[in-house]
Amino acid sequence: MISSQFPYFRHGFPRSNHGGQVAFYHPFLDRFLLVVPQEVEVVTKISMLANLRYPIMPMYVSNAPGFNHTLLDNGCCDNWTTSLDNQQRKKIYDNDRATQIIQRPQRLEPSKSMPEDYTVFSIEAEKQWMQLLWFWQEFLEFIGKTENPYEPVIDFVNQYLLPNELKPSYRTETEKFIRAVNRILSIETDPATADSAIINHMQTHASFLKDVVKWFRINRIECGL
Questions:
Q1: Range of 75's domain?
Q2: Are 62 and 40 within 8 A, CB to CB?
Q3: 102 & 167 share domain
């Protein structure tokens, strides 16, 4: 697997030696596709978007026997699976797709190799897709907060430096961008295509966010948060 070469790759380790971790389980592939620190606020949104394509079950895995804070990361999480109990299996068979974190203790097991002729899903592409959902949902969460540190800066620029016809309302335009990104992520299935569509939309309709996403990417991706 070459997930670490994906531009949005993050390891997903807990943020402290005592922190927890949530793993997203793909029942058809019978393995985890993404792990994130327990503190990530957008787990449900990631699940909702992923569940438009297939069942994804977010599970709290830090209570698994033998778990330690360096056991699972996004470079190797697809090498691991879990034993499902009957109630969890029923959710899958009934198409009752889980978006809330399953808290029941899990048992982690090595996943089986996929058959050589398997072509339904690319594990690498699905892992990239989940990483993409994680990044953009966290970015949308960031710009949607009223305490976003960029808002007063942009409002200052709008008020004093831009001609009237170029002054966007930060909050209004941000909400439009959030809706547009979620629409793209709900329609596209290829990570590269989705990311390109989001960047193009930003450049055309929300250029005031270009520096914000640059800052966010450096401080979240390069710092591994």
A1: 3-119
A2: no
A3: no
Is 0.85 surpassed by the pTM of this model?
yes
Q: Which of 119, 144, 167 is the last residue of a domain?
A: 119
- The 3-class SS string of 160-199 reads HCCCHHHCCCHHHHHHHHHHHHHHHHHHCCCHHHHHHHHH
Report CA-CA distances (Å) from 172 to 124, 178, 179, 207: 36, 10, 11, 14
Residue type, 37: P
pLDDT value for 17: 78
Domain count for the chain? 2
Q: Please report, for residues 21, 75, 124, the alpha-carbon distance to residue 2 in angstroms, rounded to integers and kept in the order given.
A: 22, 8, 7
Task: Write the pLDDT tens digit of every residue in 190-202.
Answer: 999 999 999 999 9
